[in-house]
Amino acid sequence: MGLIDVLLVAKVIPYLDQELNKRYNLFRIWDFPQKSQLLTQHGASIRAVVGNASAGADSNLIEALPKLEIVSSYSVGVDMIDLNMCKEKGIRVTNTPDVLTDDVADLAICLILTLLRRILECDRFVRSGNWKRGDYKLTTKFSGKTIGIIGMGRIGTAVAKRAEGFNCSICYYSRTQKQEPKYKYYPSLIELASNCDILVVACPLTEETHHIINREVINALGPKGVLINIGRGKHVDEPELVSALLEGRLGGAGLDVYENEPHVPEELFGLENVVLLPHIGSGTVETRAAMADLLLGNLEAHFLGKPLLTPLV
Length: 313
Ligand code: 8YV
Prior knowledge:
Layout: E1 5-8, H1 14-23, E2 25-28, H2 35-42, E3 46-51, H3 59-63, E4 70-73, H4 83-89, E5 92-94, H5 101-116, H6 119-127, E6 146-150, H7 154-164, E7 169-173, E8 184-185, H8 189-194, E9 198-201, H9 215-221, E10 226-229, H10 238-247, E11 252-255, E12 274-276, H11 285-303
Parallel strand pairs: 1-2, 1-3, 3-4, 4-5, 6-7, 6-9, 7-8, 9-10, 10-11, 11-12
Helix pairs in contact: 1-11, 5-7
Bound molecules: 2-keto-D-gluconic acid.
2-keto-D-gluconic acid binds next to loops.
Keywords: NAD, NADP, Oxidoreductase
GO molecular function: glyoxylate reductase (NADPH) activity; hydroxypyruvate reductase [NAD(P)H] activity; NAD binding
GO biological process, one term: photorespiration
């Protein structure tokens, strides 16, 4: 029996690419100048799609792959996959939860500290030799602040635990109240934003959470408030965020994700109260390797008829 046909729709680390190529008959979407050519030549035999946070399996791709059995995402977020269609057609879906939780939560705290303590400006101050001409201006204390978290799932909880180490008060907004009396639950996002210093977006992107950060929420957070986005760019109405920052209606923003990656609104480039990262939440050598092993384990389990390691659908 020949190797199983697998379609890779996003670039992944070399280790994962090589392992997939060793174990399967791998088609890389970018090797085909026309997607239609790939689908005409191989669409009938592809049994698995591997994607990531920026490319998954939409309804058109799923329709074009009649033998598709599984979509495995090299990410925890699965907003690029048509989950309803997968459910309807009995196509399995896996992602890479847990292994990346620490890194993403670490990065949320890193964004907060970088922003509040103005680490990037301070570094430039030293490198430019300006320290010799006087001391740097005072910054903002993090310890003891109130953190509002949107989404108290794996990542939200990990952010909360870390923030507890900084003696922060934790409050949150999510679909359901959790069994955690230490954290204050707000059933209204506006209430949460009005009552915290730092608002962290840590929920999955769904139809309900698209643009969950809108003008009203930004205004509730206010000129002293700070927004941290380690979720998805589409959680935030980006033009509203940009105008709030330019007009001083929001205190600052630490962003790892954007609405139209890798495009970042250029109006933000000149602002010192903004920290901009290139979607590196899970981007450590250790975590990306663990994500790769999890993805490979899921595919192996599926094709051996064993239970999936991290089934979503
Ligand atoms: C990745 C992510 O950036 O897990 C997610 O949802 O956004 C990320 O870990 C990406 O999928 C890695 O290629």
